[in-house]
């Protein structure tokens, strides 16, 4: 099997890949769309992409590209604990650092530390935390990257400050995508819980429209763990709704929801019905 992920080495996505596919070959790509395209065009069998963070919420490019550009079913999910460190290519005092590089989400997750401890440093967004670490490793000027311990090891950087994220309960959720709906590969194992992700479009905007959609789930006692509106990109005020529910798409109650929403003129599209995998940190790991 071949797996694509947001690289280079040293990203949190690579941690997710290592947990899910410990014995398979993984190939890094510069952007999330490139990871998905590699599966869509048959270069890769699976891809692992970040979809949601505790602090910053949804990763918009992942959901927008998944819904508007490629049609890859979600076949699995894993949640990785996120520890952000300040990485430098040599020992520096904080006041010497002129620039900080990282993914925009990582920068936002460490806003308070940057605001109070590095007010003089300019921040620069990169495509991933691993890319930021790789860039800083090759710089001569006093700069830093925000990333994990894996990135520090991969690129020979010094961890100047540990755990600089603003909130301790920092986790990122990752999707496993495939070209077709398939059983979860044996190397991943089986998850204890299952979830279904979907999106719903309304026939038109009218009073109580969203309430009717939610009621179709509520009276059947189907638990909804997430709902989020996203622009349809067809005009201001036009939105669709992304939802996660705690049941399988084959469940008779869920099929009842589909029929009820169809009768209301709504369009329900299932993005995937998949297992949730628990991340098990390796003994002695400090990630």
Automatic annotation (TrEMBL):
Residues of the signal sequence? Answer: none
Chemical reaction(s) catalysed: prephenate + H(+) = 3-phenylpyruvate + CO2 + H2O
Cellular component terms (Gene Ontology): cytoplasm
Keywords in alphabetical order, please: Amino-acid biosynthesis, Aromatic amino acid biosynthesis, Lyase, Phenylalanine biosynthesis
One MF annotation (Gene Ontology) recorded for this entry: prephenate dehydratase activity
CDD domains linked to this entry = ACT_CM-PDT, PBP2_Sa-PDT_like
Task: List its EC numbers.
Answer: 4.2.1.51
Q: Which Gene3D superfamilies match?
A: 3.30.70.260, Periplasmic binding protein-like II
Which EC class does it fall in? lyase
**Pfam families linked to this entry:** PDT
Site residues (Essential for prephenate dehydratase activity), renumbered to this chain? 172
- GO biological process entries: L-phenylalanine biosynthetic process
Where does the ACT domain start and stop, copy by copy? 198-275
Looking at the record, the residues that make up the Prephenate dehydratase domain are 2-179
Q: Which domain of life is it from?
A: Bacteria
Associated pathway: Amino-acid biosynthesis; L-phenylalanine biosynthesis; phenylpyruvate from prephenate: step 1/1
Q: What is this protein called?
A: Prephenate dehydratase
Q: Which organism's genome codes for this protein?
A: Terribacillus halophilus
The gene that this protein is the product of is pheA
